[in-house]
What does this fold into?
Amino acid sequence: MATYSDKELLEMLRTDQSSYAFNLLVRKYQNKIYAHVRRIVIDHDDANDVIQNIFIKVWKGLEKFNEDSELYTWIYRISVNESLTFLKKKRTKFFIPIHNIEKEMSDKIDAGEHFSGDEIERKLQKALLTLPEKQRIVFNLRYYDEMPYEEMSRVLGTSVGALKASYHIAAKKIEENLLRH
Amino acid sequence: MEELKNIAPHLNQLLKKDAFTAPEGYFEDLPSRIQDCVIAQTKTKSRTFSPVWTFSTLGVASVLCVLFFLRKSPEEITSITKQEATTYINENLEQEFDETLLADELITSDNKTLTSEENLEEYILNQDIDEQLLREEI
It folds into this structure.
C-alpha cells in the first residue's frame, strides 16, 4: 500500500475520496497511537475503546482542522486528552472517587495479558504507574517515542522548560524505584 | 540517550522495548472497525437541546395551566339560587322550555319532599304559576 504524506492525506480527505483517505490515515498512525495509548491505560480492551474514540474524534474534527499544527501533533493531542478522560471516568466509576485504578493497572501488568516484557520491563511499567498521570505521559513521549521537547510542547500545551523538568523528575523517580526493588 | 545518562544511569542501560502487544490481526481490521463506528455515529442523529423549542413549549404549557385554574369550577356554575333560575327562565321564555327537565330538577333537588308525583303536583300548585305560560301550553 502506497504511503502518503500528511499533506497529501489532508488534501485527499477534502475530496470524494475522504473515506479512503481516512482509512489510510488510520493505517498510518494506528500502531503508534495504540502503543501510546496502551502505555497510558495498560489494558488492551481499554486501549481499543480509547483508540476508536480518538479516530472518531479525528474524523469529526477534520473539517475544522486548520493546519496550524502538524496532523500527527493534532492526533497525539487528541490521544492524550482521550486517554486522560478515560482514566478520569474510570477513577470515578459508580461515582466513587477513590477507585484505585493504579492498583488495577499494576495487576493487569502482573497478569501479563498482551505483555511481552521481561521482569525488568514489568518493574519499569509498574514504577511508571507510581508517577502522576501527566508526568507519566511526558516520560512515555520522551523515552519511548523520543519526541522532541518542542513537539511535545505543542502536543501537551506545556512549556519546553516545564517538560524538561517533568521528564528529569520522572526519570529520577523511576531510577530510585528500580534500584529499590 | 545522553540526557538519561546523568540523571538515571541504570534506566539508561535498559534495552528499550515496547512490551505491550496487540492480539494477532488486531491492526488488520482496526481501520474497518473504526470506519464502521464513524458511519454508525454519522447515522445516529442525536437530539440536541433547542432553547427555542423548549421555551416555546414551556410558555404554551404555562398558559394552559393558567387557563385551567382560572376556569369556573362546576360548583360555581351550579351554585345558583332558585330565584336566579326563575328569573333566567322568565327572561328567556321565547326559547323552547323543556318542562321535563324542570320536573327532574325539582325531584332531585335538595327539597327531599319532592320524591313522588303527588308531592311534585302539590309543589307545582303551591308555586306562582305564570298564567300566560299555562295558556300558551293549552
